[in-house]
Amino acid sequence: MPTIDIRRPHQLSINEARSVVDKVAARMREKFGIDGRWQDNTLLFTRSGVNGSIAVDSDVIHVKAELGLMLAPLKGMVEQEIRRKLDEHFA
What we know:
Blueprint: E1 3-9, H1 14-32, E2 35-39, E3 42-47, E4 50-56, E5 60-67, H2 75-90
Antiparallel strand pairs: 1-5, 2-3, 3-4, 4-5
């Protein structure tokens, strides 16, 4: 399975960063039907064809996702969109 693994430094508090991740997760639910739940400071998400996590640390956001076979050809596009959103919210 293709894997996406992105780390992005940030300057926010953990609570502020979690709030931003919550907003992005709400948009992902609305747009793509992705379900998510918090486990400590990590948002675990899943949908048919993708499983992953967004870990919020004091100075970095770490996004990991495994794409299923149907989404494998779109890995580059998905990764580019994740990077764009991280830049938008954590730059």
